[in-house]
Amino acid sequence: MVSLILRQSLAVVLALSSGTLAKDWESPKYKWLYKFPFPISLPRRSGSRDSLTGKKIRYYEIEIKEFTHQVYPNLGPAKLLVGYDGISPGPTLLTERGEEAVIRFTNHAKMASFIHLHGSYSRTPWDGWAEDTTAVGEYKDNNYPDSQSLRTLWYHDHVIDHTAENACFGQAGVYVLHESAEDGLGLPARYGIYYITLILSAKQYNKDGTLYSPASKDTSLYGDVSTSTGSHGRTSSSGCTSTASASSTPPSPAISFSISRISS
């Protein structure tokens, strides 16, 4: 195993040090500045109550399905993407501490899936065991107690042998757990206007604009095109945002960033 990793690492160094061969490892240059508000999508939602306790339940329904996305304006679209409700990042789930949440994930994609709420205190049947899959055409209701303090989590596919591949191709989203103590900060809290989440990642694209798959990689794939909340390259937002939370979705290198105002 050690010798295999060393050979792979040496291959990467040699490829990147060769002027001709390096092009095979590079995505097409992305030189467009994203100048629109961050794409934000909330899921379909209907309230419900526990028939035994009468307590409120936050109920969501999300479909896992394929979609395409035009990443490079001058190339073909990225195909074979799979996302929650057919978008990536998936719908942001807004939840409240102490209120149970039930999320129905229906699988309309072409392969099995299962969802893991990363960093959550979850009961065993809904923790995302990698072999407890939801087959194509089936659904599963995930139950989350939301008993932790306020935090920003992310949910993603967790199927055995395909976790990195599925997350890279779109199966990831944000889960915001709010509690009343946060209101005491006095910050504007209207989601999508004064409060947004940033989902940071790094991807690699083929020469035709399609997404390069990490499925054949024995080690991590570190992309050379940064993405932020569904947009690519350098990113700006025209909205006035006073608070933000961020998370990084693998496979991705360490990311450092700053927020600044860009003159029009």
From TrEMBL:
Instruction: Please indicate which superkingdom the organism of origin belongs to.
Output: Eukaryota
Q: Which residues form the Plastocyanin-like domain?
A: 70-180
**Family assignment?**
Belongs to the multicopper oxidase family.
Annotated region Disordered: where?
222-255
Which Pfam family, just one, is annotated for this protein?
Answer: Cu-oxidase_3
Write the record's keywords in alphabetical order, separated by commas: Copper, Signal
Which interval of the chain is the signal sequence? 1-22
GO MF annotation list: copper ion binding
According to UniProt, the name of this protein is Bilirubin oxidase
| InterPro entries, per the entry | Cu-oxidase-like_N, Cu-oxidase_fam, Cupredoxin
| Low complexity bias: start-end ranges | 226-255
